[in-house]
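Internal tracking record. Fields below are filled automatically when a chain is submitted to the structure queue. Please do not edit lines marked as system-generated. If the sequence contains nonstandard residues, flag them in the REMARKS field before resubmitting.
Queue: standard
Priority: normal
Entity type: single polypeptide chain
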Amino acid sequence: MTRVSWLTAFLDLPPDVHAVGTRFWAAVTGYAVSPPRGDEAEFTTLLPPVGDPFLKIQRTGCGEGPTDPGVHLDLHVASAPESAARAEGLGAQVVDRSEHGYVVLRSPGGFTFCFVHEQLLERPLPTRWPQQHESIVDQVALDIPAGDYDGECGFWSALTGWPVRRSVSRPELRHLVRPDGIPLRLLLQRLDAASGPVTGHVDLACDDRPTEVHRHVGLGATVVADHGGGWTTLRDPAGLLYCVTDRDPRSGLGR
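SYSTEM-GENERATED OUTPUT FOLLOWS
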């Protein structure tokens, strides 16, 4: 089992939408944007006012990499090479071993993730907005074609050691039980499509969804679908799909 001490979600934004996407997510979260870093100044971090960061942005198209907006995960571990070897044994593929110490992989279903060494500890609290409600990005949903669903669920549970829990009311949803202090949940969503690559999106938890959705629309998001039974799907100005949910922003559980 690989001991994962922290999770970071990366928003991967092509150059033509990188600036607008960065502004949007800084405003949505209420976080500051760090100075850029990387060989081509392609990485920035969203910095919460209190607590350690768990959201980063990558300008893609620098060398090889995705050209469409997307999401990938960083798993923080004690040894990236040892964790990568274990992941390979579970069916993952190593894409790159960086000279900076991190390892880039793809899950058996094709979802990109990295093992990194950065050790972080303090999970930020939700942001309290002037409208007197709270919200926080607290979940990465893996969107998995039906043919790969059981295998991908098994891979992520075996890799992290986190148990899988099924939804009582929605059979297409499972989640991994995160340890205390981890800032992001992992939701595993079965798609209707039988095949295709595994992709991902981020979800926010909030205690007043209509008000939160209205706030996002005012910042430039577009409502794609209001599912009524607990979440709203939106598209950000960079083209990324994401959801605002009714889950408790402090516990991550349904209310």
